[in-house]
Backbone:
């Protein structure tokens, strides 16, 4: 089945079909593609414009959340088994930083985080993806949510095969400031989130995992 | 080439209101265009209005600090306006306090603040004249 009609089908569960079709066309126009060019998978740009479209056109925010989660699952061909919703953003260019943080914000909102927490999550993702572009050249950001009794969480994993981080201890102790600001970015990211873990090996790459919890 | 972020001249001040997602490239572009615009217009004040942006990370915050420092060296005072409280929280939590940057709650108070600065300078010049007058 064409992914375009699949999108409209899923969105129509939460809104009139004409509106769903309208939002799809809005997203297609924004991405400068036609429905036939959409192919079988959704790009991250397409997803983020669809989410934006929902925000712009739909009145009831409560219906939006479920509808957005549906769309995110649609794009979740790389879904991780233990988590509910997953999005992967490839980071190759500085514009991908914007895509990644917009995803983080939208997913944070769908989990139910406050506006302030959404901003913190998006800022943390912005820092991590920028580090990938600056220091590793390319990598990926994976965003997933976890739902457990009494708590929900958003998890972001930033990984690359770059040079690794030297002086990690110094950086995390706040004793190191690069001109480019790596120190502040990582430290800031840690301060903004509830959990922060780094695995890094010289010459092999870096994997940073961050989490923020939402008490229910 | 058309500007992504318009720079508006308002009396002696320049005004930029950022309403788009700020990519790193766009921030760098803005920095350059503001600098040349300050030179071209000889503006006394610069207002950077941020109510339209979602995220202010360390790079963007530092770049805005840079713009303000460059402007100061060129004799132009910068006021940041409309910073969303959630972003202010986030910045402080990260340990970025935007020190040395003048801020205002909204566009109106930013303009008032720049106008007050102007009259202070005018007042100072008057005092100097007065003092000079006394010494002669």
Residues:
């Amino acid at each position: 089945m064409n992914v375009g009609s699949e999108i409209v089908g899923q969105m129509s569960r939460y809104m009139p079909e004409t509106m769903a079709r309208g939002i799809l066309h809005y997203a297609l126009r924004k991405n400068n593609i036609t429905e036939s060019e959409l192919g079988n998978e959704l790009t991250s740009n397409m997803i983020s414009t669809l989410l934006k479209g929902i925000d712009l056109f739909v009145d009831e925010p409560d219906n939006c959340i479920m509808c957005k989660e549906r769309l995110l699952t649609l794009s979740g061909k790389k879904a991780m088994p233990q988590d509910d919703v997953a999005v992967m953003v490839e980071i190759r260019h500085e514009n991908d930083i914007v895509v990644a943080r917009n995803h983080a914000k939208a997913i944070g909102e769908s989990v139910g985080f406050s506006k302030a927490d959404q901003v913190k999550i998006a800022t943390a993702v912005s820092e991590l993806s920028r580090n990938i572009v600056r220091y590793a050249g390319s990598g990926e950001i994976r965003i997933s949510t976890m739902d457990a009794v009494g708590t929900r969480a958003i998890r972001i994993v930033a990984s690359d095969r770059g040079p690794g981080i030297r002086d990690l201890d110094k950086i995390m102790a706040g004793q190191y400031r690069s001109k480019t600001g790596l120190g502040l970015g990582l430290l800031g990211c840690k301060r903004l989130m509830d959990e922060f873990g780094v695995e890094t090996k010289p010459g092999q790459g870096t994997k940073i995992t961050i989490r923020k919890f939402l008490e229910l | 080439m058309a500007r992504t972020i318009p720079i508006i001249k308002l009396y002696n001040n320049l005004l930029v209101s950022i309403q788009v997602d700020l990519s790193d490239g766009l921030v760098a572009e803005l920095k350059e265009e503001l600098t040349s615009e300050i030179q071209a217009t000889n503006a006394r004040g610069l207002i950077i209005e941020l109510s339209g942006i979602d995220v202010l990370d360390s790079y963007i915050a530092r770049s805005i600090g840079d713009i303000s420092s460059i402007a100061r060296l060129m004799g132009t005072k910068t006021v940041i306006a409309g910073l969303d409280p959630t972003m202010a929280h986030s910045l402080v939590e990260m340990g970025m306090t935007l020190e040395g940057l003048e801020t205002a709650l909204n566009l109106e108070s930013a303009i008032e603040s720049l106008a007050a600065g102007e009259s202070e300078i005018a007042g100072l010049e008057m005092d100097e004249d007065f003092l000079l007058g006394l010494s002669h």
